[in-house]
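Reviewer 2 asked us to include a model.

Predict the structure of this chain.
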Amino acid sequence: MTTFDISSYSTSRRPITILGAGHIGFAMALLLQQSGDYDILVVDRDPVRLAEVATLGISTRLATNDASLQAAIDGRFAVLNALPFHRAVAVATLCAHAGVHYFDLTEDVASTQAIRTLAANARSVLMPQCGLAPGFIGIVGNDLARRFDTLHTLRMRVGALPRYPQGALRYNLTWSTEGLINEYCNPCEAIVDGVRTTVPALEGLETFALDGVEYEAFNTSGGLGTLTETLAGKARQVDYQSIRYPGHNAILKLLLNDLRLRDRRDLLKDILETAIPTTDQDVIVVFATASGLKGGRLVQDSYSARIVGTQVAGHTLSAIQLTTAAGICTTLDLVAQGKLPQQGFVGQESVALADFLSNRFGSAYAREGELVL
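Predicted model (structure tokens):
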């Protein structure tokens, strides 16, 4: 495992606020600090988490209500929101009123729709869903779609998986449990037979092998971002599924459907966090494939990547920390460099894949195979 060296661009130091000092917030702060181009303030309600960030030499502030959040937002160039999804709309509203650029990682469809409505009259950029999925996978999907004269199918698959799976679920917690439950329970957007629709989570089970490893994949919510809207009328089939090791789907259906834990999400969260260990030894698997007509011929094109964790300035970042933080830091960079719109709602499809992968943060995704930075 080698060091991830982020070369600095010649931009002025822009003041930014990171909301949330958890694993992802810490990774975002670390990456941005290494660039040398941002004046960073990290805000959280947990003094223990803030103390860990402070060891990096980064400014921190305790905030417990909207008034203290507003004080941390006013006058900043941008806010990067790493708080739980249910805080997204409230924080985006504060940023819109303050004229501050806003970025988040939410997978929640309703929150994204509300932020899009809010952005109609915004003076600043409001850009949700800037992580891995939604986020990077939408950029990949849109890039694949644009390669065809007539797009027939676009299938996107992403997994945040343990490298050394144990137990019947063959899964470890690597990110927000609330976000994971959302993915497993909420309706999933898709295009089916040319029509935008929703399909049930956990359905559409398929199995496949990639680089000799067996996986399963099934419908989960939120991963497509706004891509179904962008491709409406342009494709027959568009869908997103989460990748897991075989057997995971059957156990989830037992928990969520047979035991009806989808109606008791707080209990489900407690069970998962009590019974399933976290791990930093994870791997991100990205696989997208598209088919359609190109030059009058039926062809297929694909994108795949396998990404593991890395060391940044002596700190170990897991694969999910690296990819999620790299996604939102890249979109911030591209707005700062004027490569994206400067106000209103900005979807991930606005980001060119080449611009993303050539960015100093986005380069974390740039190589296929087992990526060790």
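Residues 196 and 232 are 7 Å apart (CA to CA). The radius of gyration is 20 Å. We have added this to the supplementary material.
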